Amino acid sequence: MARAAKIQRTRYRFQYAVKFICTANIPGTSQTTDAFLPGIYQTAVNIHNPQTIKIKMRKKIASPLGISKYFEAILEPDGVERVTCSQVQDFGITFIHGFEGFLVVESTHSLDVTAVYTAGGRGAEVSSIDVEQIKERKL
């Protein structure tokens, strides 16, 4: 008698919702919005595995433009992954002038998730930077 194969589901126990902004508000152009002060805004998210074991995680983008599918990954012990504005379209979300939404990360074990937000004037260097540790939510 054949045994039914066991299907092991990954149990994602932790979730992180990171505000993600990649846009420019340049008055007098097609990139004018009333949502932000004039300037260029960028986000980079760093994900670190502080565990001594490999962990499974998955990421998606959620925004008013749509919700992507989850993309799964393995993060090595003490491994780091980064998600930047240039990678948002890799999630299948198409935008023309800018993106605002959330990067949602789920994992089997607790992670360090940090967002780095920068802003600057048109053609200028960074004039503002903020670094935030993202709180985990237990699922």
What report would you give on this structure?
The chain has 139 residues and is mainly beta. It has one domain (14-138): Sandwich (Hypothetical Protein Tm1070, Chain: A). 0% of the residues lie in helices and 52% in strands. The protein contains no helices and ten strands. The chain has strands at residues 14-25, 39-48, 55-63, 66-67, 71-75, 80-84, 98-107, 112-120, 126-133, 137-138. Strands 1, 2, 3, 4, 5, 6, 7, 8, 9 and 10 form a ten-stranded antiparallel sheet that branches. The chain is elongated. The mean pLDDT is 88.
Brief sketch in words of this structure:
0% of the residues lie in helices and 52% in strands. It is mainly beta and 139 residues long.
In the CATH hierarchy, what is the superfamily? Answer: TM1070-like
Please count the beta strands (DSSP E, at least 2 residues each): 10
Mean pLDDT: 88
Q: What structural class do helix, strand and pairing data support? A: mainly beta
The stretches of 5 or more residues where confidence is low (pLDDT under 50) are none
User: Mind describing the biggest β-sheet?
Assistant: 10 strands, antiparallel
What CATH architecture do you see?
Answer: Sandwich
Order of helices and strands: EEEEEEEEEE
Basic shape: elongated
- Termini gap: 38 Å
Which CATH class applies here? Answer: Mainly Beta
Number of H- or I-type helical stretches: 0
Tally of separate domains: 1
What amount of the residues lies in strands? over 45%
* CATH fold type: Hypothetical Protein Tm1070, Chain: A
Indicate the radius of gyration in whole angstroms.
Answer: 18 Å
